[in-house]
Amino acid sequence: MASITITNLTKRFGSVTAISDLTLAIEDHEFLVMVGPTGAGKTTTLRCLAGLDKPDAGTILFDRQDMANISPAARDVAFVFQNYALYPRKSVYENIEFPLIPRRLSAEDRDARVQQVTRMLKINHLLDRRPAQLSGGEQQRVALGRAMVRSPQVFLMDEPLTNLDFLLRAGMRTELKRIQQELNQTFFYVTNDQIEALAMGDRIAVLNKGVLQQVGPPQDVYEKPANLFVASFIGSTRMNFLSCTYNTDSGMLTGSKAGWSLAAPERLKAGATNGHGTGGLILGIRPEDVQIAGEGEAGDLDGQVYVVEPLGDRNIYDIRIGEVPVKVKTPATFIRESGTPVSVRFNMARAHLFDSETQMALT
User: Fold this and answer.
1) Which residues contact 125 (CB under 8 A, 6 or more apart)?
2) Which range marks the domain in which residue 36 is found?
3) pLDDT tens string 107-125
4) Is 308 domain-assigned?
């Protein structure tokens, strides 16, 4: 097992900067998930850690040992790929055993390790099959088993669940977390799926255009986004954003387009005053923190139901307040037809405020 310390890491491909001045520490035994959109630099970060790409600047330490002149083979990392990369002509047993052969272990020792790993992954009944005879989930377990059998210092995982269907992905998220806890080893996992990041990581690191945006426990990143990008990327359904200004005399936030007004709690007042004054602001509020008032009840703002998305366990309502759309989560039993006038309440205690110019959080 190993800790990883990345300091001021930069990697360029011609005129394109894939990673820019990345500094990140991954603790021993930690499950850290790096999340970001396609092209954010996540895979490049993994390749630099594995020694497959050479950084243009910065350092990578494994347990305080500089990896600059250490070959990929000597770094003792296991790379689990998105496409599984199994040997098609080898059986499951032979695929998993293969990394042990260069180590000159006895046949008995190799067999013991293969049996131990396949039992843990619940694929010990598939040992004679070839990859073409396996489902996507089974192939993913074989790829993971081939990594686990080596007992590496660090597991590097490059979107390994992307090719699985929804149910398999959900099941494998649970399995991977269980396996990491059982092995008690360091996992560095990258994905563009923020649900995976929130569900699996001890901490998550949000990356965008090669720049680290925020690092922290999943709930902290969800509840206290550092900037507009993190607020918009983390969370399903997406956070609502409403352009507004703040009036220091009245203590009101006023919509730039729809002309709505909401009383700002002290936390937002302090952020608006200290961060930006009376200039352009963006109010952010998650759909679960907006409520549609019942019939005959007063809300904060009046609008109209535009679209309803029934999702089985909940409904997502698109409410138009003037020309401004606001998403609202409700229980599945709450029914309002499209075109119905409604009134909504904002839980301002859970709202966020961002500077429209810098896009940084002010609260």
Assistant:
1) none
2) 4-226
3) 999 999 999 999 888 899 9
4) yes
